Amino acid sequence: MLETLNFWVATGFGLGLSPIAPGTFGSLLGIPLAWWLLGRPLGQQGAILAVLIALAIPVCHYASLQFAGADHGSIVADEYVAFPLAVIGIKAARHPLVMAMAFVVYRFFDALKPPPIHFAEYVQGGFGIVLDDVIAALVSWVVIVLVLKLWQRRTSQPA
């Protein structure tokens, strides 16, 4: 029973079982989670995300054991739990276009895994499975904040 429940949570309630882009489909669950979190005070956002990320580590670890210990593409709890970090504290992310940009930026970094993200791949177990997504989300957060600052600066200058 617990194994089955863990499997469904780990696979994003089946979204991660998609034969095409399972990480992207699984990450979609992070959008409503991020939207909901952004309606909370920053301290609550951080606390809730810390708990969810801590819970995702054993969920992903035990799911990986069902896939011979590998970070199988069907395991997407790490993606949907980490995505809200890409927008944490960014009030503008409640705008659908900003949320969409955040999602695209996050998926870009999570899929390509440029340095320093790819270094997390060497960490074993559930911690390693979650770590690369957390780093991708944090790098995405920096990019999104910079883009929003540049946009704000550009639109606030007199013509």
TrEMBL record:
<feature type="domain" description="YutG/PgpA">
    <location>
        <begin position="8"/>
        <end position="147"/>
    </location>
</feature>
<keyword id="KW-0472">Membrane</keyword>
<feature type="transmembrane region" description="Helical">
    <location>
        <begin position="47"/>
        <end position="68"/>
    </location>
</feature>
<feature type="transmembrane region" description="Helical">
    <location>
        <begin position="7"/>
        <end position="35"/>
    </location>
</feature>
<protein>
    <recommendedName>
        <fullName>YutG/PgpA domain-containing protein</fullName>
    </recommendedName>
</protein>
<keyword id="KW-0812">Transmembrane</keyword>
<dbReference type="Pfam" id="PF04608">
    <property type="entry name" value="PgpA"/>
</dbReference>
<keyword id="KW-1133">Transmembrane helix</keyword>
<dbReference type="GO" id="GO:0008962">
    <property type="term" value="F:phosphatidylglycerophosphatase activity"/>
</dbReference>
<dbReference type="InterPro" id="IPR007686">
    <property type="entry name" value="YutG/PgpA"/>
</dbReference>
<feature type="transmembrane region" description="Helical">
    <location>
        <begin position="126"/>
        <end position="148"/>
    </location>
</feature>
<dbReference type="InterPro" id="IPR036681">
    <property type="entry name" value="PgpA-like_sf"/>
</dbReference>
<dbReference type="GO" id="GO:0006629">
    <property type="term" value="P:lipid metabolic process"/>
</dbReference>
<dbReference type="InterPro" id="IPR026037">
    <property type="entry name" value="PgpA"/>
</dbReference>
